[in-house]
């Protein structure tokens, strides 16, 4: 791996970390269930960028692409099932606020 | 030229991600998230991964945005007074994000002293065909994908059956 490749990987990994920070902040700060799902999606985007960059600098783009395709399939299922659960919670409680989810408490 | 283009794309992507988090409207958040996905797809094309770029563009930018918008459409917005109260409280919680993102970027450049070079190296990444890898080397991934998709499908069916019963 030459120097310019490593520089490029470090630069791309910075932006991947920034995407992860945005997603993590969203999950930690928000009280809306839907925004938690959006935060999760942002973290996944960061990981996808890191995987693709790693595949590019090592020359194993095909393996990286196979992994990313699997990740995308997983992402869609998580979003669909998560969205369904959030809708179900909304129809039961008339709210998407996590503070109102106290039925299982105690 | 390519260097500036890459840098612009990456900065717009992070700005769209910040917009996704701090945006007041869920609809705007979903659209900003689609923009992040679209830019990521362009970067994938540039990083010699066209197939995953196509998947990202069609599934993440298209399908997931449609799912998000449909879910938002099935919920009703808050009334004006409640919304105004929430907006005031919201800004207090979300104002730190741009500061945190800038601080992380500065710390990264401070600890890891790397030159600001966003030009892609001339080397064309060599590798076997992605179809060959997916069908011959990583078949277990395919089994996993099929299982996950079936789980998702059954999960949604069960959820909607429960909702129909509840109604």
Number of helices of chain B: 7
Estimated radius of gyration of chain B: 21 Å
Uncertain stretches of chain B:
none
- Give the CA-CA distance, first to last residue of chain B: 59 Å
Can you give the mean pLDDT of chain B? Answer: 82
**Helical coverage of chain B, percent range:** over 70%
- Classify the fold: give the CATH topology of the largest domain in chain B: Four Helix Bundle (Hemerythrin (Met), subunit A)
- Oligomer state equals heterodimer
CATH class descriptor name of chain A: Mainly Alpha
| Rg of chain A, nearest Å | 18 Å
| Structure class of chain B | mainly alpha
The shape of chain B is: flat
Q: How much beta of chain B, percentage-wise? A: under 5%
What is the share of helical residues of chain A? over 70%
Largest sheet of chain B: none
Number of strands of chain B: 0
Instruction: Tell me the domain tally of chain B.
Output: 2
Report the span from N to C terminus of chain A: 56 Å
CATH topology of chain A: Helix Hairpins
- The CATH level-2 architecture of the largest domain in chain B is identified as Up-down Bundle
The CATH superfamily name of the largest domain in chain B is NADH-ubiquinone/plastoquinone oxidoreductase chain 6, subunit NuoJ
Topology:
The complex is a heterodimer of chains A (106) and B (167).
Chain A: H1 3-29, H2 33-58, H3 61-93
Chain B: H1 2-22, H2 26-46, H3 50-73, H4 80-94, H5 96-111, H6 130-137, H7 139-166
Task: Characterise the protein shown here.
The complex is a heterodimer of chains A (106) and B (167). Chain A has 106 residues and is mainly α. Helices cover 81% and strands 0% of the residues of chain A. Chain A contains 3 helices and no strands. Chain B is mainly alpha-helical. Chain B is 80% helix and 0% strand. In chain B, helix 1 packs antiparallel against helix 2, helix 2 runs antiparallel to helix 3 and helix 6 packs across helix 7. The radius of gyration of chain B is 21 Å and the shape is flat. Chains A and B meet through helix 1, helix 2 and helix 3 of A and helix 1, helix 2, helix 3, helix 5 and helix 6 of B.
């Amino acid at each position: 791996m030459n120097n310019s490749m490593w520089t490029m990987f470090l630069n791309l990994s910075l932006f991947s970390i920034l995407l992860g920070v945005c997603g993590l902040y969203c999950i930690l700060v928000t009280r809306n269930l839907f925004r938690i799902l959006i935060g999760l999606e942002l973290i996944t985007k960061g990981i996808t960028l890191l995987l693709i960059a790693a595949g590019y600098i090592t020359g194993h783009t095909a393996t990286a692409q196979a992994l990313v395709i699997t990740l995308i399939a997983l992402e869609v299922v998580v979003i669909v099932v998560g969205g369904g659960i959030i809708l179900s919670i909304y129809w039961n409680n008339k709210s998407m606020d996590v503070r109102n989810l106290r039925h299982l408490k105690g | 030229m390519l260097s500036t283009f890459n840098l612009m794309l990456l900065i717009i992507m992070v700005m769209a991600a910040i917009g996704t988090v701090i945006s007041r409207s869920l609809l705007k958040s979903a659209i900003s998230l689609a923009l992040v996905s679209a830019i990521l797809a362009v970067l994938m094309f540039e990083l010699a991964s066209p197939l995953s770029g196509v998947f990202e563009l069609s599934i993440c930018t298209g399908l997931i945005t449609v799912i998000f918008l449909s879910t938002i459409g099935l919920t009703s917005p808050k009334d004006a007074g409640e919304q105004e109260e929430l907006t005031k409280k919201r800004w207090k919680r979300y104002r730190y994000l741009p500061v945190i993102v800038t601080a992380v970027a500065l710390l990264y450049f401070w600890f890891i002293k790397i030159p600001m070079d966003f030009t892609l190296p001339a080397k064309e990444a060599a590798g076997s065909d992605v179809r060959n890898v997916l069908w011959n080397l990583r078949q277990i991934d395919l089994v996993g994908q099929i299982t996950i998709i079936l789980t998702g499908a059954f999960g949604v069916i069960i959820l909607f059956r429960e909702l129909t019963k509840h109604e």
